[in-house]
UniProtKB/TrEMBL annotation:
This is MBL fold metallo-hydrolase. Gene3D superfamilies: Ribonuclease Z/Hydroxyacylglutathione hydrolase-like. Signal peptide: none annotated. SUPFAM superfamilies: Metallo-hydrolase/oxidoreductase. It comes from Haloarcula salinisoli. It holds the Pfam family Lactamase_B_2.
Length: 291
């Protein structure tokens, strides 16, 4: 399995439009030594160090088929920048803007883009993720929606995939366990979630070759959230920011809990101070992995 991280940021991305914080300034600065550090990680960051809106691109080594996880509003930029072909299929984890609203790009680019998503009805919206996609993109004949039941394995692009429920209140959201049957390679993706993930989902996310774990901000940022932090560790450090997302501490603890061979923190916001924002375990766009 070949994995390309097309988009590793939160909903405003890094750099954020109009922001002059140190993290955004360093991400933009062509002379910043970050460029060399990123080259050592295999990332060509000459156009800037970026965390665009979330999306992951997978290629199946055995079949050559390709799969996109989440359809970023930065779809066009990501595909041109990283030079990957259009995917054979897509999966959408939830209906937030930053994971879904690139789907309009399917117009004229695809004859048919099959999109897989969960079939459980969300009590808040009265729709499943699959129905939410269908209703928003009903005008696009090139998008076909394929509802799937959480926890039940299904096949797409030659991968065996499971949607695993996580906690991103008030909205239903799913992580993913994606296995390449020929090699046994496993990618785990937490999706947008707080730290308190159901045990059954934790078990399915465990033991992967690579885990992509959501971590939005540093734990100290919880003092600026109206709901503060939650799911504190033994030292009182919050592992959840507000109710919806993990802190970086939470993401690192979660990665230790599910014990992958390697992990990256994804969906990280520009609010993280610059001296911590570019740590080696926090993903940047363009990183690639062979599992
Ligand atoms: Zn900023
Ligand atoms: Zn979300
Ligand atoms: Zn998101």
């Amino acid at each position: 399995m070949e994995v390309t991280l097309l988009g590793t940021g939160d909903t405003t991305g890094t750099p954020t439009i109009g922001c002059d914080c140190d993290t955004c300034e360093r991400a933009r600065d062509p002379d910043d030594p970050l460029r060399e550090r990123m080259a050592e990680r295999g990332v060509d960051a000459q156009g800037g160090v970026e965390r665009s809106r979330f999306s992951v691109y997978l290629e199946n080594d055995a079949t050559g088929e390709t799969l996109l996880v989440d359809v970023s509003p930065d779809f066009r930029h990501q595909f041109l920048r990283d030079g990957v072909p259009l995917p054979d299929a897509a999966i959408v984890t939830h209906v937030h803007f930053d994971h879904l609203d690139g789907l309009g790009n399917a117009y004229r680019l695809f004859d048919d883009l099959p999109v897989y998503a969960a079939d459980e009805t969300d009590p808040v919206t009265g729709e499943s993720v699959a129905e939410g996609i269908r209703s928003r993109y009903d005008y696009l004949d090139t998008v076909s929606v394929h509802p799937r039941t959480p926890y039940e394995p299904f096949e797409v692009a030659g991968f065996e995939v499971r949607l695993v429920p996580v906690e991103h209140p008030p909205m239903l959201c799913y992580g993913l366990r994606i296995e390449e049957p020929e090699t046994g390679a496993v990618l785990a993706i937490t999706g947008d979630t707080c730290y308190e993930v159901p045990d059954r989902s934790r078990d399915l996310l465990s033991g992967a070759d690579l885990a992509l774990v959501e971590g939005l901000v540093h734990a100290e940022a919880c003092e600026f959230h109206p709901k503060g932090g939650a799911h504190h560790d033994a030292d009182g450090v919050p592992r959840t920011f507000g109710t919806k997302h993990m802190t970086l501490s939470g993401a690192r603890d979660f990665a230790a809990d599910i014990d992958p061979d390697d992990y990256r923190i994804v969906h990280t916001a520009h609010y993280v101070p610059a001296e911590r924002a570019f740590a080696d375990d926090i993903a940047v766009d363009g990183e690639r992995f062979s599992l």
